[in-house]
Amino acid sequence: MNNSRPTHIDLQAAAKQTMLEYGFEPEFPSQIQQQLADLRANPPAIVPTGNIRDLRSLLWSSIDNDTSRDLDQIEVSEHLNGGTKVLVGIADVDTFVSKDSAIDNHAAKQTTSVYTGVRIFPMLPEELSTGTTSLLEDEDRLSVVIEFVVSGDGTVSASDVYRAVVRNKAQLTYNPVGGWLGGEGAAPQKVAASSDLQAQLKMQDEVAQALRRERYRHGALNIETIEVRAVVLNHQVVDLVKQEKNRATELIEDFMIAANGVIARMLRDKKVSSIRRVVKTPERWDRIVELARQQGGQLPAEPDSKALNEFLLKRKAAEPDHFADLSLAIIKLMGPGEYVLERPGDPEQGHFGLAVQDYTHSTAPNRRFADLVTQRLIKAVLANQPTPYSDDELAVIARNCTAKEDAARKVERQMSKRIAAVAMSGRIGERFDAIVTGVTPKGTFVRVLKPHLEGLLVSGSGGLDVGDKLSVKLVSTDPQRGYIDFAAIDRT
Q1: Neighbouring-strand partners of residue 486
Q2: Contact 113, 157 (CB under 8 A)
Q3: pLDDT by residue (tens digit) across 251-273?
Q4: Contacts of 286-293 spanning 24+ positions with Cβ under 8 A
Q5: Which DSSP category does 46 fall into?
Q6: Residue 186 and residue 329: Cα distance in Å, rounded?
Q7: Is 471 a member of any domain?
């Protein structure tokens, strides 16, 4: 199918159908409405009492995407002698979504919110995830606070976990804050209006960078990916906008990694079985070694994250314009993460890409079921109550979360390709620089560098492997099925 101009496609309907095809339930079952009505009639009290502290006076802020309303975490920091105390407040979803309730059972099946570019399919009803359980600005909210002290060298020297009532004082977004922190733009309006908030964010940025440097010293991978967001008007794609990491996205990433480490160690020390998030040693390390050799690097025969990161840093300095493409190839060869049951005494599998041994998911309970499960484990520990899940239950949940996360990636990829096909349907015959991102029984896939989007190489794919660079010509698009077909022209 060779389209020379955009073809009309109902992207909303396509997103819903794709969800169904991959085993999701895009609409909430009717019994959930009764539970929501009960919550409206008898809402949980949001007051500091007993073991729930009152931290509403602190200068909490959130940083998230421009369109996000399902805010899972807020942050605040404080200078100490010899370090900085960081508090990460996590939305207390469990108080509103009880285990084995209708909403919980639906979330357990879905396990994740799915972002299709034209519609978000939330794991929880939006009345909760973007309302009652979201840490919205100027609203009192229940939270689980993860507190840790970061020394000047980036090591976490002390930690604590407790419940609290919090209040988000400034709901901020990544790009404006990131540009300001990086010295590339003016402070956003809310930040410019408050010298206290400016000082707070700069303090957080400083400690986040220290955490990052410490992880790099231990071999965390310096990976840089580029995502493309669709600009949609009247349900039609009008543009593709590149999204990149900045100092604000790094700040949140570093704080969340540290916070998740605190929770993983807490559950381990309390001898509580939990769900861990792991990325095992790459199975295709030999191909990573070969990629490094082709670019003048030398890696050991056995997987070594520290050596890999040193190579990545050198390549980033040598070819910054192509570093995202190398990062993408490494990510593909490392393989996806997975959720696993970890029982007391089990050897820790760790997270190869983050170079951490203690890692779970606990900081996004509005968006991920594994995080909601972990929150219940945390609250049981804090209340000195028995664990709410058996090992068998956790193992089943872990397997389902892994399977549904894989399915969600496929949904998002399919919709991304469909959106890209619409955007590219008027550019048949044009030539692009590309990189091979996948070699599968279904064919060889390449990613165009500008704009960053992926398609199938329908001719000239012989002998290619992940990471190879070439020039391609766009030969056809099929927006209905999300097909973008390229032909190889020159290999580099």
Answers
A1: 457, 474
A2: no
A3: 999 999 999 999 999 999 999 99
A4: 287/333, 287/465, 287/466, 287/467, 288/330, 288/333, 288/334, 291/326, 291/329, 291/330, 291/333, 291/466, 291/467
A5: -
A6: 34
A7: no
User: Which tokens go with 491?
Assistant: 């290999």
**Could you tell me if residue 370 is inside a domain?**
yes
Q: Does 367 map to a domain?
A: yes
Check if the beta carbon of residue 376 is closer than 8 Å to that of residue 390: no
Cα-Cα-Cα-Cα torsion 151, 156, 158, 164, nearest 10 degrees, comes to 110
Determine, yes or no, domain membership for 154. yes
Cβ atoms of residues 163 and 53 within 8 Å: yes
CA 290 vs CA 138, 330, 463: distances in Å: 53, 11, 14
Q: 153-207: per-residue pLDDT in tens?
A: 999 989 999 999 999 999 999 999 999 999 999 999 999 999 999 999 999 999 9
Q: What is the pTM of this model?
A: 0.85
268 touches 306 (CB < 8 A): no
Domain that holds residue 132: 11-279+338-419
- How many structural domains comprise the chain? 1
